[in-house]
TrEMBL record:
The active site is at Y59 (proton donor). Belongs to the aldo/keto reductase family. This is Glyoxal reductase. It comes from the Bacteria. CDD domains: AKR_AKR5G1-3. Gene3D superfamilies: NADP-dependent oxidoreductase domain. It comes from Maribacter hydrothermalis. InterPro entries: AKR, AKR5G, Aldo/ket_reductase_CS, NAD(P)_OxRdtase_dom_sf, NADP_OxRdtase_dom. Residues 25-266 form the NADP-dependent oxidoreductase domain. Pfam families: Aldo_ket_red. The record marks K84 as: Lowers pKa of active site Tyr. One of its GO terms (molecular function) is oxidoreductase activity, acting on the CH-OH group of donors, NAD or NADP as acceptor. Keywords: NADP, Oxidoreductase. The keyword Secreted does not apply.
């Protein structure tokens, strides 16, 4: 039986299987330009108390993210920094090179979490072997995957040395995938969401507007609180200081079990992004 997650404040965290603490609210940087835009977003987030920054090689903004961290004045050891190996760089040797390139662009000497961005058929198991090596070398504090469905995870787990510690998935009220959440929980894999706002679609849902009114909060705040109360790490993306602050204003209320269940029941299986079983990039 899963215990109810303890949600305290912006610096709170969920504990990964190896004891590493992963802040449950972070700043996503997808589609944030690799210039002053992402630098300022990172600095603003860290100033507000965020301690989790998520990027990826594919976002082409690792340099800006690294610059934002350095200019923030926050000690590197306090920040949970995440990036991902892109599809074209998968494979054992290729992943080792990609990892070093990401470190160089970020201007850091280790990562807190490194993820396989997508399960590239015929390559992701060799990529995972490279992540296990980097983890053993203590160059990464935790390793995980992104967009891995149950059968992908089972394939990795069949002969891995280290079970993935995190699975970052598209997650929102129309794509809950509770069976996958439960599978991850049963295997000590922390669930994390991307696209929690369904690329903006949640803001047009009457039920979300009704919940926002009920709790005196914004729709975005309702959805992010929903993530955290389900034990799911959330990394909403924004480059606007006011929105970054608003996204963090979710620690003074709690959704009822009935409202959590209601949001779960909106599940339709609709994706706002690609299907992990059918992508061609």
């Amino acid at each position: 039986m899963n215990t109810r997650p303890i949600i305290t404040d912006i610096k709170g965290s969920f504990e990964l299987r190896n004891g590493v603490k992963m802040p449950y609210l972070g700043l996503g940087t997808y589609q944030s330009d690799n210039d002053q835009e992402v630098v300022d977003a990172v600095k603003n987030a860290l100033k507000l108390g965020y301690r989790h920054i998520d990027t990826a090689a594919a976002y082409k903004n690792e340099e800006g993210v690294g610059k934002g961290i350095r200019e923030s004045g926050v000690d590197r050891s306090e920040i949970f920094l995440v990036t991902k190996v892109w599809n074209a760089d998968q494979g054992y040797e290729e992943t080792l090179k990609a990892f070093n390139a990401s470190l160089e662009r970020l201007g850091v000497d280790y990562l807190d979490l490194y993820l396989i961005h997508w399960p590239v058929a015929g390559k992701y198991k060799e990529t995972w072997r490279a992540l296990e090596y980097l983890y053993a070398q203590k160059k990464i504090r935790a390793i995980g995957v992104s967009n891995f469905l149950k059968h992908h995870l089972e394939d990795v787990m069949n002969d891995c040395t280290v079970v993935p510690m995190v699975n970052q998935m598209e997650f929102h009220p129309f794509l809950v995938q509770q069976d996958l959440i439960d599978f991850c929980a049963d295997n000590g894999i922390q669930y994390e969401s991307w696209s929690p706002f369904m690329q903006g679609k949640v803001f047009a849902l009457d039920i979300c507007a009704d919940l926002a009114k009920k709790y005196g909060k914004s729709v975005a705040q309702i959805i992010l609180r929903y993530n955290l109360q389900k034990g799911i790490v959330a990394i909403p993306k924004s480059v606007h200081a006011k929105r970054i602050a608003s996204n963090a204003d979710i620690f003074d209320f709690e959704l009822s079990n009935e409202d959590l269940q209601f949001l779960d029941n909106l599940e339709t299986g609709e994706r706002s992004g690609p299907d992990p079983d059918n992508f061609n990039f």
